[in-house]
Amino acid sequence: SSPSSPPVHSQFALNAGLRFLTPEEEFLGWAPAPFDLPAFDPRDLDKVTQEVPEAELVSDRPEVLLTVGFPGAGKSTFVKRYLVPAGYEYVNRDTLGSWQRCVSACSAALARGRSVVVDNTNPDPESRQRFVSCAREAAVPCRCLQFTASLEQARHNCRFRDMTQSGHVPVTDAVLFSYKKQFVAPDLSEGFSQILQIPFVPHFGDPPDPQRRRLFFQFSDG
What we know:
5-stranded parallel sheet, alpha/beta, double-stranded DNA binding, disordered N terminus, P-loop_NTPase, Rossmann fold
């Protein structure tokens, strides 16, 4: 028979570092039942350490940087870690309330000679073109930061955030699947001067919190 999804109990065993056997395997001597691990294995992220070098990320001339990626893909954390301290004006729909206000804030910052980072999901060409047009009108380049986290990885990140942080609105599965349905991969033909691929790299504080780290690398359904 073809492999099936692992039962929740087996994921719990993996999280606890225990061997998992079905009753048939333990008492009847059956061969181990085949199964596939979930599409996203958080343990794989323990090997991911490389982000975009700061010299490649930050420009010394005014520009627009536009994020693209699932809710929970690490966009805001990345932007606030690397770009806001470098002097980029921060534009975010959750803060401003609408894309129209985001466009106005972007245009105003460019008029002051400031670089701008637009921290929204921007799933399709229509949503991205609003800010490409802002950059074009100000005669500055527009680059895209495409955060590569998959739906399964973003879902895991959102669950981890729900368990470890307070004061934010939880991201539902409906929101994640809606983003996936709308998503069209960004392309240079939209007017971007560059598209940078940004992998998700987990951070657990400085110094790292061992409990948060251990929790993150567990299966969220286990």
